[in-house]
Fold:
Amino acid sequence: MILRNLIVAACVATSLTSKAFAQPAPAPSEPPAPASAVEEGQRGLAFYGESRWQEAFESFSRAEQKTHSPVFVLYMARSLGHLGRLVEAAVLYRRVLDEDTSNAPPPWRQARLDAGAELTALRERIPAIEIRAALGAGDVLTVDGKPAKPLARIELDPGPHEIVFVRAGRTAKKSVALRAGDALTTVSFDSEPKPGPREGGAPPSVIAGGVLLGTGIASLVAGAITGGLALKLAGDVHEVCDESAPCPVPQPELQPDIDEAKRFGDATTGLLVAGGALAATGLVLVLVRPGAARATAIPSAYVMPAGPGLVIGGSF
Structure:
């Protein structure tokens, strides 16, 4: 096995000499290919032999920028294939195949032959998806953020991908994980994407809960104020009466204060009950958020009288 690897390495190195990288025989007035391009190519070959695919790709790319050679492009495609970037590799293989090498040096012609065979093998490894969605005017379909068409074969690299279907502000998303060599994967969407949570704002339940909670607190505060007024008026009435016993005989001059205290007392009761109920409901909406995943415990809230006031409680 070691001897075989050495022979293969020697053959590859021989194919990547300066003749392999050279341009077709130039006219006498044309300058020769830059030596730095050959050096970059040989550096890329060293990286390639060490399975350092990204560095090999970058070296061959720099060499290709300095002077064109289908051998550089072929090894760029091979490096990308090892990196799992199969779609990009296929594009580079096609570049080599599109090149006219009829009057080119033998290494160039060999690079074209190798590209054809390797592209055929690569196509068997490239996974693809087909999206089934009824697109209408204004609808948007993307794969990994790029526009896509339904019912078309879309070749992708192995790995995770996100497909997004947007209609009238409603978004549906699906994820797929592809492997090299997978058969065609079908991704289907309903005709009407379901509305998702609004981006950049609180859910409606939280907004409604905040309004109810604020209204409930305001009612409780108002109830406390009216309750204080009722207690003050009741105190004024009792100061006039004999401290040893309640007023046995109605006193006409105190009747307005008694009526006013009763009205404030009734208002206090109503405000405290309503405020407690609103505050408890708002708190449930803010904390629980209906529509989210249910917890094991069932949230509850209650309002009950306790002595002269009310008690608000619950479990969340």
Remarks:
- The CA atoms of residues 53 and 79 lie 5 Å apart.
- The two ends are 68 Å apart (CA to CA).
